[in-house]
């Protein structure tokens, strides 16, 4: 078992806060860009409004 401090982390593309690796992201960690579903939706709605 790894310690939480040993897990990889990234910066969220929307809120700019750091987030750490989760088991559900194991297979596609490289593709994860957002810390939560809320940030993912905020990014999509922001790009739709700019059109």
Automatic annotation (TrEMBL):
Short name of one Pfam family: DUF2256
InterPro entries: UCP037205
Protein name: DUF2256 domain-containing protein
Origin species: Undibacterium amnicola
């Amino acid at each position: 078992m790894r310690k939480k401090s040993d897990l990889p982390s990234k910066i969220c593309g929307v809120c700019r806060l750091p987030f750490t690796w989760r088991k559900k992201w194991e297979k596609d960690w490289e593709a994860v860009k957002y810390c939560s579903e809320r940030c993912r939706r905020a990014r999509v709605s922001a790009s739709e409004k700019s059109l």
